[in-house]
Design a protein that fits this description.
Largest sheet: 5 strands, mixed, barrel
Keywords: ATP-binding, Cytoplasm, DNA damage, DNA recombination, DNA repair, DNA-binding, Helicase, Hydrolase, Nucleotide-binding
Low-confidence stretches: 140-156
CATH architecture of the largest domain: Orthogonal Bundle
Structural class: alpha+beta
Strand content: 15-25%
Helix content: 40-55%
CATH superfamily of the largest domain: 5' to 3' exonuclease, C-terminal subdomain
Radius of gyration: 17 Å
Oligomer: single chain
Distance between the termini: 36 Å
Shape: globular
Main location: cytoplasm
Protein name: Holliday junction branch migration complex subunit RuvA
Number of domains: 3
GO cellular component, one term: Holliday junction helicase complex
Number of helices: 9
Subcellular location: Cytoplasm
Length: 206
């Protein structure tokens, strides 16, 4: 297994990044590639998970080793594959996911694509009490006052979802929306109007 890649980040797309290591370009799938934007054209270390299927071998990349470990834990849950696990680990603060599992917060977990109530319950059943070793790195600032981060994240996510619905109402199709969604997710705490404005700007670049 490839533990990590350290090299020059030479390309970013909506689902992948390319890291040049010793003249070899490695294609790495990321939940939100734009999280690595600050390293563009510079050296970066990406922690990786190698997933092997009959028809494909893919590398999935993470900023933190602990994010990858959470990804591996998610893959152990029935009904969650690499794509779903990647969305869960990287679309919100990972610590918020851990906290939601520990708090048995089904409503937070079902906000992720492909996660219904049954899958959320399975995640809680399989992983609750088993993620303690990840907490120090993933939840250092989990609490803000008396409110856990996942509540704030849920509110921010609600603003984003409202913006995406507005884009659909304007006639944009899901394929177009999926291309610009990672850019929006990389900018937390925006209002619905701000998300819409940013989305329209990104659409013009397509």
């Amino acid at each position: 297994m490839i533990e990590c890649l350290t090299g020059k980040l030479i390309h970013i797309e909506t689902e992948t990044i390319i890291v040049n290591v010793g003249g070899v370009g490695y294609l790495v799938y990321c939940g939100n590639p734009y999280r690595f934007q600050e390293y563009y054209d510079n050296e970066v270390t990406v922690f990786t998970y190698q997933h092997v299927k009959e028809d494909a071998i893919r590398l999935y990349g993470f900023k933190q080793r602990e994010e990858r470990r959470l990804f591996e834990k998610m893959l152990q849950v029935s009904g969650i594959g690499p794509k779903g696990a990647l969305a869960i680990v990287t679309s919100e603060q990972p610590g918020s996911v851990v906290d939601a599992i520990e708090q048995a917060n089904e409503s937070f977990l079902t906000k992720f694509p492909g996660v219904g109530k049954k899958t959320a319950q399975q995640m809680i059943l399989d992983l609750r009490g088993k993620l303690g070793e990840l907490l120090p790195s993933l939840t250092g600032d989990l609490l803000q006052g008396d409110q856990p981060v996942y509540q704030h994240a849920a509110a921010e996510n609600e603003a984003l979802e409202e913006a995406l619905e507005a884009l659909r109402a304007l006639g944009y199709v899901d394929k177009e929306i999926r291309k610009i969604k990672p850019v929006l997710e990389a900018q937390p705490s925006l209002s619905t109007d701000a998300y819409i404005k940013q989305a329209l700007q990104e659409m013009l670049k397509q």
